[in-house]
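The aim of this short unit is practical: by the end, you should be able to scan a pair of folded records and say something sensible about each. We start with the first protein, listed as its amino acid sequence and then its structure tokens.
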Amino acid sequence: MRIGFDKAFIILIKVLTLFSLLLLSFIIIFVFKEGYIFFKEVPILKFITGTTWNPLSDPRNLSIFNIILATLYVSLVAIIIALPIGVGSALLLSGYVKERPRLIIRGLIDIIAGIPSVIFGFIGLMVLVKFFEKFFDFPSGESVLAGGILLAVMVLPYIISTCDETMDKLYRKHSPAAQAMGISKIYILRTIVLPQSLRGIVAATVLAFGRAMGETMAVMMVIGNAPIMPRLLGKCQTIPSLIALEMGMAEVGSLHYHALFAAGFVLMVILLMINVALYYVKRSLNR
């Protein structure tokens, strides 16, 4: 009876895995099919290297180089801010916080990860943007920096959770022997736990970067949504915010409509390239 149940469970897992892969494949094929119609009209090289996005002009200028740069720029700012804080927090949780408070803190971190992005966007718009305008005398607080700070807060739980799982296991493994030899906690964390956690840190970076590049609503509310060359203290527009803002107003079947699908396909390709690159970095750390 038990053997039959185990076989049925294995078959169910395989079916669900296959279903997930098929669903992902259908999404990629659908986006590519809709974007390919645009690429037959506009060469892909011109689309990704041109600097003008104006679907109302005649002839239409539909190029997303500035938007690609803005997407990468905002996400990179978020990772630069969040990664040191996340890794430091994970080290603190794994080495200095007792089990019960640690579980409570991890629960609160998971709650933060589950807050809807529009709530973060509303807080960013009313607090972060206003703060820049008032205390730094910016003409507009909507900027790459505002989007990066907001995204850093949003991806921080993913970094902390991923790193903490790896670091906690390593600390539990090496702590008894190290304490028996009189080695301090900070030395264990700095020389043993942190170097051996590089794979987990890379995994956290991949997860956080993908989350940052795909975020739409919160970022859209604080970056100004101007498809111009991004500057740290200037406005910009990311690919997800472009699609979210213009898909509803684009005429179905028009060149503008298919250009938005083409932009989405470019975003997926960029994410795939980044994930592959970081995968090889992670694999090289195993050698």
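Turning to the second protein, read its sequence before its tokens, just as you did above.
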Amino acid sequence: MSFSTFIGLFAGVAIIIAAMAIGSSIWIFVNIPGLMIVIGGTLAATMIRYSFHEAMFAVKMSFQVVLPSPDIKDKNELLDLTEDLLRTSRMKGMLALEDMEVPHEFYQRGVRMMVDGYSKELVLQNLREENQLFSERAETSAGVFGSIGAAAPAFGMIGTLVGLIQMLSDLSDPSTIGPAMAVAMLTTLYGAMIANLFALPMADKITVWGEEESLRQQMIMEGLTAIMDGQNPNIMRDLLAPFLEPGQKAKPDDV
């Protein structure tokens, strides 16, 4: 799991639970009807906005974001890998790339197409379309979690209103007003927690991850272009340098 995600989620849940437990029982914060209203209503509203397939793909992408991946993440490593592939293809030909390890799924597909004899135009067209589709799916997935983040507090308020109406319908016993009000407020708490501790942070994380991965894919496409053109490795590094962060750019004596 992403270290920052794990720390943030663990710390957030721990702090809230600790605050709940101080001075009272944690069980007073558990209300099944309130959870049904918030979770059920939020899921229903999200399914109205998005198709079932889009919602399931968003869940799948959320796991891709937080779980470890074997794909190369560091752009300097991608640059070094591109240089290795370029030097090998210049010395031994494209078929020699088939035996090289390429630890990035998108990069692997591009190398496989080159080895199979696809033209440069066809390789780049295929990868550009895949990159565009990936960006659109990441945007949609972030939208799904953004929708959850928007709907959860609204249904929390709906649950609170339902509880207040039920409470105000029978005021014959004043001693029950306080506990009933507390239960009515729980749905607002549930909605706020779901939105701000899970859904909205996940939407932002998918957005950032999608942008970074799309940039890596664009860098890979430029690297594949250099390989297919048989560029000089030093020229290739200069061409890919803009994709690196300012502090990551290779020094002249490193190339």
